[in-house]
Amino acid sequence: MRLSSRQIEEIGRLQSGKTLKDYPLSRLSSFKIGGPADLVVEPQTTGELAAVVHFLRAEGISRIILGGGSNVLFHDAGFRGVVVRMNSINRFELSANGSDHVRVSSDAGVPLASVLNHVCRSGSTGLEPLWGIPGTFGGAVISNAGAGGASICDFLVELEILTDRCEEILLKKADLHYGYRAVDLPPGSVVLRGTLRLSRGEPKVIEAALAAAKSRRRHTQPLDRPSAGCIFKNPSPEKPAGAIIDRLGLKGVTVGGAEVSRVHANFIVNGGGASAADVLSLIEMIRGRVKEQEHIELELEIRVVGEESAGE
Which member of 11, 80, 107, 268 has the lowest number of beta carbons within 10 Å of its beta carbon? Predict the structure, then answer.
């Protein structure tokens, strides 16, 4: 169901950021794929965000909370509802207090790359393996982003969220339950802000760890073509999805404009003009082959947002 003029006007009144009608989601996705959303808005404060979410819930309007758009595949037909971008909710604070650790507080909309730059320059260590992971801090928390044996939730000590009923609550470390590429949050909640506890480190050691992370990512991932990062979760540490797909000889396989990367088999890249249908067909072909020959059910790491998707 399309939004009415009244609904669009009210959403525009509730927040002071951009209000974009029939906006191409390909412009908001690192995959460069996706049809139009009925409406894209960008609240400037958590108060505006809460007001918009409350209105959408009361009106029964589908919504997507979007960070950097780096781990998502949008349907070719777009999204019937409202895409709420978090980019303008971007406060950042680092507190050293002269101790052997620092506390880093970041709003959900801060780019993860910016968080890493700040903490590494401050002499804080722990996040270096995450260098190069795209997207925002909030998206990284929701997916418990990780690399090189480190995951962001390992360092999380507090998390502020907006519940589905638009209540702001603070979760302490003891309240947080997370695992591989996931954190357990109340259904429909939105990450507002998180606080990390990081140790102090030696600048030269931090620089060396960053250099190693940069080298690893640049040599093992297809950074020159649009993608959504790793498509599948690893079935286990001993069985990474990319190695399984590579072993089956699927590197370079294409469907339309979508291609299994020749650099890293767990990436599907947009070779030019790829559609969501192309990517989804390639995903199903890979899953079918892996299930048939390896007896493994590959689970998606990316989020697929279809025309009829609802909620989060």
Answer: 80
Model pTM score: 0.93
Tokens for 237, please give them.
């540490």
Q: Which CATH architecture has domain 5-85?
A: 2-Layer Sandwich (3.30)
Beta strand spans in 119-237 (E) = 124-125, 146-147, 150-151, 156-162, 168-172, 177-179, 182-184, 190-200, 227-230
Counting residues of the chain whose pLDDT is more than 70, the rounded percentage is: 97
pLDDT tens readout for residues 42-65: 999 999 999 999 999 999 999 999
Token pair of 260, please? Answer: 């299994």
Comparing CA positions, the residue from 237, 273, 233 lying closest to residue 256 is 273
Q: Which fold has domain 92-209?
A: 3.30.465
- The sign of the CA dihedral 229, 34, 303, 67 is positive
Per-residue DSSP letter, 148: T
Say whether pLDDT at 312 is over 80: no
